[in-house]
Each structure stands twice: as C-alpha cells, then as structure tokens.
Q: What sequence folds into this?
C-alpha cells in the first residue's frame, strides 16, 4: 500500500492538515490547523491517534458517577417496589420512565458538549463511529444509564482490540436489552443478536448461513444481565452440540466470537467500513484488501488500521479531500469548533442535528445511519441553512450574574480579527481559509468582496473594518459561506 510522503510537489500543507483534522476529528480553527502543519506529517498523525498522551479535559457527569438507583440497579429497585398497589406501581413506573428520559437528554447534551470541547477529537470521533456501528438506541424506553455506560465502553476501546471489544459488547447490558439477548434462553432461542453480530457487526451478508444464526443464538443463550452487570445464566443455557461456520462443539458466546474472528471476512468488512467513514464512499477493492491485511497482521488492533488509513497516499488525493458530505454532527460540532464557541445552547443544536437526520443516541435502526450523500435532501439542506444562521447570529450564550441565559452572537475573532485586516479581499480570504481550508478560493469571492464594499444604503464605498456595521457584514459573509455547497463537504 502506497503511503503519503510529503514532497515539494505534494507538500504537507494547511489543506492536507485541515483534511486530516476534519476526518480524524471535527475540524478546528485556523490556529489548530497551523499547529498540525508545523508539527510535520508524521507527528501530526501521531498527535491525533495517540490521544492517550493528551490529558482528558472533559469530566464525567455527576449522574454518571452517582447514578439513580432506579437506573443503575433496576432489578434490585424493582424488588423493593414489587408489592406496591396497582395505581402506585403504575405511577412509579411513569416516574422512572420520566427519569430515564431526563437522563437521556442530559446524556445527549453532555456528549455533544464533549465533542465540541475535547482536546482528544479523534477519540470522540471513533466513539461516534462505534455508536453507529454497534448500535443501541434510547428508543423503546432504553435505560439511559446503560447507554451512558455503553458509550463509555466505546470510548475506552476506541482504538483497542476489535475482537476484545466485540466480546465486551456481547456482554453489555444496553446491547443485551436492545437486541433481546437478555431474553435468549435454551427452550426459546432469540436470534436477534446472533444475526446482527454477523450481518452488521463483524462479517457482512454472504459470509454465514441462516443455520449459523440459529446455532449462534443457541450458543448465546443464558447470556443475560442482573441490574447493570452481565451474568451467565447456566440454567437457561443450551449445552447441546452446535455446528457454526463449519466448526462443531459445545459452544457458548465466547466460542462464537473466537470462530468469527478466524474468518478473513472480518478484516475486509471492517477495513471497508472504516475507509467509508473516514475517507471515501467508493473504496477501491485492492486498497481495502491491503488495509484488511494490515488489520489481520495487527491481530485486530484498531489503531494500526486507522493509522494505515490516515497515512495512505489515497487519503490525501483529490478524490478524497473535500469529497465527503458532512454528517449533521460533523457539521454542527465543526462549526462550533471552527468559530471557537465556548458555550452554546446544546438542546437547540441537538434539535438542529435531529432535523438534519442524525438524532444522537437514537439511530433509525440497528443498521445505524446510512450517511454519505443521503445526508442531503431538500428538507435537510434547508435545516442546514437555518443552522448556519443560528450559529452566526445567536449560537453562543451569555449568563449574567443571577440572570437567565440569553442568545448573543457567536464571537468571530477566532477566524477574523478586524484589527488585523485592511481590505475586503483580505477579509473574505481569511474567512474562506478558516471555513473552507481544504478548498480553493470560494467561487463567489468577487461577489462577497463586492458585498463588503456595499454600504448600509446600498451605495458603494471602500470596506472599513472599523465601521459600526462592519461586523454585521462579516457575519453575513460567514453565513453565505456556511450555506454554500462547498461548506457541506469536508
């Protein structure tokens, strides 16, 4: 596999550094791009991938450290209230569901805030990838504390061993509940998890049979939970002989995972999925096999595979740079990071991303979000325009002492300092470099420059960065760029 090596003709520059930052994380302000350029190619990649060397600047939420008893120990709590009268028991059930919903909303806001503020953007981007791969959802009354624990699992295993991670996911209470394996017993096997484990999580369609699903479900029988802990229920496990992917024995869930990871298809399946997520929706078959070879040789360690992607020559080609449609969360978090907005109205941002088609912690189904070009349609594109207006005009919040939060315009000095520009051309170019760092000059550059030269009453006059209406005009330029087709891709 050909790796990228900076040359005079193809230098490691701001365009490529911004591309790496966009794909491996959520983008950032010009200063962050310049920092990667100054590091040099190898060190820039290492700085993102080896996030463990960077102190984590995000703390855990209080409700995660000290969770409500009803969510952390639901079985124990249920035993305490089992003898409540009918009406009291119903009311208590309603209260617990309301609590789940409240914690679920807090979890969404906490995770979004973490994406916006983290100094480990690659770790959080990988966590988001795993959430869309090993899918569970807040839908159908899911215990939101379990989902918090699951997201933490994805964060801890972000670049760890894929086989070990798959085994941990198989024992995770949110996954056990979401795909019904906590109800899988010998006399009544449930095939949901067994099917998705192969179809969506590890092998892909065509690499197993319906009989393999049935045998796998038998092996996973008795894998259940008590409260927030995985337990093996020996009484309800099927101890009979199973034949799975050509192997025969008295298998349990661990054996099933072992046998799956003996199949070459696992590496190919994951190499393709990670390349599509981080690089291109149209992967080259030969390149995928080369990446799969890296993955197998690394004994299914995720970091070597991702490093191979981020150091691949094709990753920095014109076929890949600025050719991926931004997902709603990439768009929203990227804008907040690019403008260096320190505080924002998280519920409003989540509402926008949901309307754009990505409801955090609530994928549409176990397949997750399809993504790619499907992020854009006539409805979601209009929401993207509205989100750009929200960010530019009222994205930040200011909380006066003792007062309520009120919307105020986001600061724009992180991408343009009016004291350091003298012309409209310079202003437009600085904004374009900040918001479209991987792209050539904006095709509407002349019109944007002309707009800055237009006075309040429509007359033409030289742009004065110190004029009272200068910032409003600059904000309008930012909005136009954020609403352009070029801004919808990275």
A:
């Amino acid at each position: 596999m050909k790796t990228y090596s900076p040359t005079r003709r193809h230098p490691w520059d701001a365009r490529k550094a911004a591309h790496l930052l966009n794909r491996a994380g959520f983008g950032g302000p010009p200063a962050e791009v310049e920092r990667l350029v100054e590091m040099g190619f190898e060190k820039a990649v290492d700085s993102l991938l080896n996030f463990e060397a960077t102190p984590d600047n995000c703390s855990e939420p209080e409700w995660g450290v000290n969770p409500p008893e009803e969510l952390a120990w639901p079985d124990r709590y249920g035993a305490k209230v089992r003898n409540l009268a009918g009406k009291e028991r119903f009311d208590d059930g309603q209260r617990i569901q309301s609590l789940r919903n409240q914690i679920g909303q807090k979890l969404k806001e906490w995770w979004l805030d973490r994406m916006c503020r983290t100094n480990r953007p690659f770790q959080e981007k990988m966590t988001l990838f795993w959430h869309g791969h090993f899918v569970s959802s807040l839908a159908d009354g899911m215990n939101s504390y379990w989902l918090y624990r699951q997201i933490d699992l994805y964060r801890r295993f972000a670049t760890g061993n894929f086989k070990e991670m798959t085994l941990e996911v198989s024992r995770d209470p949110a996954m056990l509940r979401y795909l019904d394996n906590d109800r899988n017993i010998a006399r009544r096997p449930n095939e949901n998890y067994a099917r998705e484990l192969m179809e969506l999580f590890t092998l892909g369609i065509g690499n197993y049979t319906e009989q393999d699903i049935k045998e796998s479900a038998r092996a996973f029988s008795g894998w259940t939970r008590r409260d927030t802990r995985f337990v093996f229920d020996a009484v309800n496990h099927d101890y009979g002989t199973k034949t799975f992917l050509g192997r025969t024995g008295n298998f349990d869930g661990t054996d099933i995972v072992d046998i799956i990871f003996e199949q070459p298809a696992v590496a190919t399946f994951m190499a393709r999925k990670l390349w599509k997520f981080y690089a291109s929706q149209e992967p080259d078959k030969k390149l995928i096999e080369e990446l799969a070879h890296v993955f197998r040789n690394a004994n299914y360690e995720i970091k070597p595979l991702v490093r191979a992607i981020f150091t691949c020559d094709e990753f920095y080609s014109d076929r890949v740079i600025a050719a991926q449609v931004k997902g709603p969360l990439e768009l929203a978090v990227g804008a907040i990071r690019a403008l260096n907005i320190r505080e924002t109205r998280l519920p409003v941002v989540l509402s926008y991303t949901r309307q754009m088609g990505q409801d955090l912690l609530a994928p549409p189904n176990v397949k997750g979000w399809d993504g790619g070009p499907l992020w854009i349609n006539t409805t979601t594109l209009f929401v993207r325009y509205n989100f750009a207006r929200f960010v530019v005009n009222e994205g930040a919040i200011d909380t006066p002492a003792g007062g309520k939060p009120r919307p105020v315009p986001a600061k724009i000095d992180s991408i343009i300092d009016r004291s350091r520009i003298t012309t409209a051309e310079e202003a437009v170019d600085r904004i374009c470099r900040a918001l479209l760092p991987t792209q050539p000059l904006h095709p509407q550059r002349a019109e944007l420059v002309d707009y800055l030269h237009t006075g309040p009453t429509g007359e033409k006059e030289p742009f004065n960065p110190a004029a009272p209406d200068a910032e409003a005009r600059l904000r309008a330029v930012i909005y136009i760029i954020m609403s352009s087709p070029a801004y919808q891709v990275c």
Observations:
- The first helix runs from residue 14 to 24.
- Residues 396-400 have pLDDT under 50 and may be disordered.
